[in-house]
Specification:
With about 475 residues, the chain is α/β, with parallel strands linked by helices. About 50% of the residues lie in helices and about 15% in strands. The protein starts with a strand and ends with a strand.
Length: about 475
């Protein structure tokens, strides 16, 4: 049993589920509305009041989590915490309250997870589809075929901002609607040609705003009740006729959701009209379902991160044979040092595979270029923390160690850095490496033992080992090299 929590711009949501006979069954859901995005000022500073509302919501979610035997919990934060300049202040407190790490994911990663959830619920492997998710702070568009994503984009327009920016004090009129629609149109105009010509045969809406809008259209018998542009225009007319959020007389619209429905409607009208969407199908799946599928797939070794690494190797034209040699060397050396846990095993291996991607930019300081690419690239399945850790490993593969900014305080991270540096050194010196030929130990100091004949067989090795001792000495750690 596992849990997915989405810290969205409009509400915090929880799913608890378990995998049963090929599907993930949701056994518990919870929603804590808090309109976090409304707490952002013009400089994207999140107010203390909004933070406190969020922390109170997390306390309630934690009490729900405590009632279930969970094997894994994944918590992600989306647009508001992506753009808030003081997001870290909230996240530090939020992790303490919730008891789990929180990952701020990119809009593209959000889109991938949304599509993963939708694709697994639909189970239509041959269907070419467009998936739309309208959140409080951003809108994700994902085009794919079956399980495979062909394009994913995140646009900085969402229900909360639309409502706050154009419908001041809840007043609804024609001029406000047209201004909101024009603003939304400006966000999507560059994408129109691609999505109109991408060949999808079905369009699905995965967000709560879309599902709520569909319910309003149906139960209020607006037009023929279907999710079409014509009926959305009729809903718009009903809202303008009401004149104010408080005067809306529509069944199925809850007071706390009214402003989100209003903001979302302005975006939906643009998408339906400009993308040529005849009918949109709401689906009971999205980000949280995608997170749970991600947890399940990782536990069964179908790790999306492996595909992301392969994509990076291909994109940056890495010599895969060299990459594999260094990765295998590094892993063999690391295991000799008896790490306390498996926390860094995969991250070290992937870092070693990618250690030369910076060559794509320039051979000079390629380790610095590679570190930047890894930290800032859109890598499916990876959390920002994992990418930062891999970035530090790649940066630390050569040269001085002072640049690693404190990661050496973690013993297993120190072992991983040493393993990668030795692996890269052996690769450069063209050592015919065999794990049984060396011995590496880390206790009160670092000890490396190599065959004596290597110093004669590989002329530059002694030079690099002497430099290595100096670099470790510079950070207060003694490295001793012995021969047998």
């Amino acid at each position: 049993m596992f849990a997915a929590i989405d810290l969205g711009s409009n509400s915090f949501r929880l799913h608890i589920g378990e995998y049963v006979n090929g599907v993930i069954c949701v056994v518990k859901s919870a929603r804590e509305p808090n309109r976090l995005a409304a707490g952002l000022d013009k400089n994207n500073v999140l107010s203390r009041e909004a933070m406190e509302r969020g922390l109170d919501a997390l306390k309630r979610l934690r009490s729900i989590l405590a009632a279930y035997p969970l094997s894994d919990v994944k918590v992600v934060a989306t647009n508001t915490l992506r753009i808030a300049v003081n997001a870290q202040d909230f996240l530090q407190d939020a992790e303490k309250v919730l008891g789990y790490p929180i990952e701020v994911i990119s809009g593209e990663e959000e889109g991938r997870l949304i599509y993963l959830g939708v694709a697994n619920v639909l189970a239509k492997p041959e269907e070419k589809r467009l998936v739309i998710d309208i959140g409080g702070g951003s809108t994700e568009l994902i085009c794919g075929l079956g399980q495979d994503i062909e394009r994913v984009e995140s646009f900085s327009v969402g229900t909360v901002r639309q409502s706050l920016a154009f419908f001041h004090d809840g007043i609804i009129d024609e001029a406000s609607f047209e201004a909101a629609i024009l603003s939304a149109r400006s966000q999507f105009e560059d994408a129109v040609d691609y999505y109109r010509s991408s060949g999808w045969t079905a369009v699905y809406g995965s967000s709560g705003t879309i599902r709520a809008t569909a319910e309003i259209l149906a139960i209020n018998r607006i037009g023929d009740g279907r999710f079409t542009l014509e009926n959305l225009e009729l809903l718009k007319a009903r809202m303008i006729e009401a004149g104010h959020l408080n005067h809306l007389k529509l069944d199925g619209i809850k007071a706390e959701r009214a402003s989100s429905i209003l903001g979302g409607l302005t975006i939906l009208i643009v998408l339906m009209k400009d993308f040529g969407i005849d009918i949109l199908k709401p689906v009971e799946a999205g980000l949280r379902m995608g997170i749970m599928w991600d947890i399940y797939l990782m536990s069964t070794q179908k790790d999306r991160r492996e595909e992301a690494i392969r994509d990076m190797l291909k994109r940056y034209h890495v010599d895969e044979q060299r990459a594999l040699r260094v990765a295998n060397y590094a892993l063999a050396i690391y295991k000799q040092m008896d790490p306390d846990a498996d926390r860094f095993l995969k991250l070290l291996y992937w870092s070693a595979l990618l250690h030369e991607i910076g060559m794509f930019i320039s051979p000079t300081n390629y380790h610095k270029h590679g570190a930047y690419l890894i930290e800032h690239a859109d890598m499916a399945g990876f959390t920002s923390r994992e990418q930062r850790q891999m970035s530090r490993f790649v940066l630390g593969q050569k040269g001085n160690l002072k640049k690693l900014n404190g990661i050496m305080t973690v013993p297993d991270a120190t072992k991983a850095v040493l393993a990668l540096r030795l692996a890269v050194m052996f690769q450069h010196a063209k050592v015919s490496f065999k794990p049984e030929k060396i011995r590496v130990r880390v206790k009160s100091r670092l000890d490396v033992t190599i065959p004596k004949e290597w110093l004669n067989l590989y002329p530059t090795l002694l030079y690099w080992l002497e430099r290595e001792c100096d670099w470790w000495q510079d950070v207060g750690m003694a490295l001793t090299v012995r021969t047998t």
